[in-house]
Amino acid sequence: MIIAPSVLTADLSNLAESCKKAVDAGLNWMHLDVMDGNFVPNLTFGPPVIRSLRKALGDEVTFDAHLMISNAEECFQDYIDAGCNHISVHVEATTHLHRLITAIRSAGASAGVVLNPSTPLTEILEVLPELDLVLVMSVNPGFGGQSFIPTVENKIRKLKQAIDEQVKNGGREVTIQIDGGVKAFNIKEIQSWGVTNAVVGSGLFNNKASVAQNYAEILKALE
Ligand code: DX5
Ligand code: ZN
User: Is the C-beta atom of 203 inside 6 A of ligand 1?
Assistant: First the structure.
């Protein structure tokens, strides 16, 4: 299982240092939470900060941009140019989802779609054959450190079935990613639903232990 550190609860004034701690601990898939103060009630960072982070971390680390923004159709290219390898867009914020996914993939990035907790799976089934990843939100987006919403289990199990069916019919394998409230105590169960990529923010970056110690706890839970 890939553990994707979300830097939202890290020390953002030392973003590169926080990320380096995660990389040194063996985590090399960075989940970058981009918020615009419009689609979600919070603001984080955009392409210039990501470009600097890319310089600081080098090319070995995967940058996964979770775009919680209203205008991804207009500006996704800026995130790819800044060094993002993977772009996930919210289905709730996009009118022409198929066009956007196709454009992201043509631009050389892998493409994901994100579902808020209240958004049904049916919203994305028509584009499933075009996707590299589906991100199921297990909190309402906007803030780190919230509690896991358990009703996502049903959605993830159905998504896993739909992907298995697609693969059986010769279609593409799609990664299931989860984001929000994932901790050492619930990650094993989440994995059993078919999730192979878990975003962890406050479970890694907190004042109880170091990132390396928290990651070790997660790995122990997954044994
Ligand atoms: C929420 C973000 C998440 C979140 C993860 O809008 O997309 O990545 O910050 O943080 P935790 O693990 O603390 O819920
Ligand atoms: Zn996120």
Answer: yes
Phi, psi of 163 (to 5 degrees): -70, -45
- Beta pairing, strands 29-35 & 62-68: parallel
What is the pTM (predicted TM-score) of this model? 0.98
Pocket test for ligand 1, best of 199, 200, 217 (most atoms within 8 A of CB): 199
Q: What is the pLDDT of residue 162?
A: 98
84-137: per-residue pLDDT in tens?
999 999 999 999 999 999 999 999 999 999 999 999 999 999 999 999 999 999
Condensed to tens digits (0 to 9), the pLDDT of residues 67-94 reads 999 999 999 999 999 999 999 999 999 9
CA–centroid distance, residue 108 to ligand 2 (Å)? 21
Give the domains, in start order, of the chain with CATH numbers. Answer: 2-222 (3.20.20.70)
Q: What is the DSSP string of 165-220?
A: HHHHTT----EEEEESS--TTTHHHHHHTT--EEEESTTTSSSSS-HHHHHHHHHH
Expressed in angstroms and rounded, the spacing between residue 199 Cα and the centre of ligand 2 is: 7
Is 78 labeled as catalytic in the residue annotation?
A: no
Distance of CA 168 from the midpoint of ligand 1 (Å) = 33
Q: Report the pLDDT averaged over residues 57-74.
A: 97
- 3-state DSSP call for residue 63? strand
- Whether ligand 1 lies within 6 angstroms of the CB of 33 is answered as yes
